[in-house]
Amino acid sequence: MGVQERRAKERELRRSAILDAAKALYEQYGIDGVSMDRIAHEAELAKGTIYLYFKSREELMMALIAGEMDHLLQALERVAASKRAPRQQLLDAVKAFYELSQGSQFFYRVISQVNITHVVGKDHAPSAVAEHFAQQNDRMFKVILGIIERGVERGDFHLAHPAPYVVAQMMLCIKGAMVILANDMMPPFPIPKLQLDTLLTDIASLLIRGLEHAPASRPSKTT
To answer: Which residues of 114-134 are buried (b: 16+ CB within 10 A; e: fewer)?
Structure first.
């Protein structure tokens, strides 16, 4: 191994150590309870070294989100490549989303409690991490869009709105449910205690049933 290769490997190992330390701290103390000083101490590195890899706490957090999103995208792309019917693929996609949220408390907290625009930082020039994050969001949207469009081609789904709008509706419903449960924002009237996996599956099933029924035709206007 040459000098440049060895240095590149050492740099990647150090970057991974920083991310691992940050994720462990975020999961233990929460998003707001972790500073760059604390991350540097956990990773056994100087604070200045952390800033050689990540320009800010927000960029470090975004890199962590991107790592979690990679796992989710791999799962979603396996779902989309399966031979299952589009209806089941959508349910499997929701299941993959739920399983990742339960396997990573950091991911769950970010999805359900953090205003992502504060992390991305719209007022700053896009970094490589931010661009990667944007590409991941685009890929995720296209995977779900492909499932919806396949359902339309098979005659399983009947859309009253353009397919991208339908995908946005589904994503907003799923994210909204996670935010409401995570922040204990349920309505005050008495309802049974809800489990997140059951709730997400029920929401997805309700939306899918809507896709499976042809929209009612609108009466023609008369003059």
So the answer is: eeeeebbbeeeeebebbebbe
Separation CA 30–CA 22 (nearest Å) = 11
Predicted confidence (pLDDT) per residue in 200-216, tens digit: 999 999 999 999 987 76
Say how far apart CA 167 and CA 145 lie, in whole Å. Answer: 6
Give the 3-state secondary structure of residue 219. coil
**Token pair in block for residue 81:** 């490549």
The pTM assigned to this predicted structure is 0.80
Q: CB atoms < 10 A from the CB of 140, how many?
A: 19
Cα separations (Å) of 118 from 27, 34, 176? 19, 16, 18
The number of CA neighbours under 13 Å toward the Cβ of 171 is: 16
How far is CA 17 from each of CA 13, 20, 40, 42, 60, rounded to the nearest angstrom? Answer: 6, 5, 10, 9, 12
CA-CA distance, 159 to 115, in Å (whole number)? 31
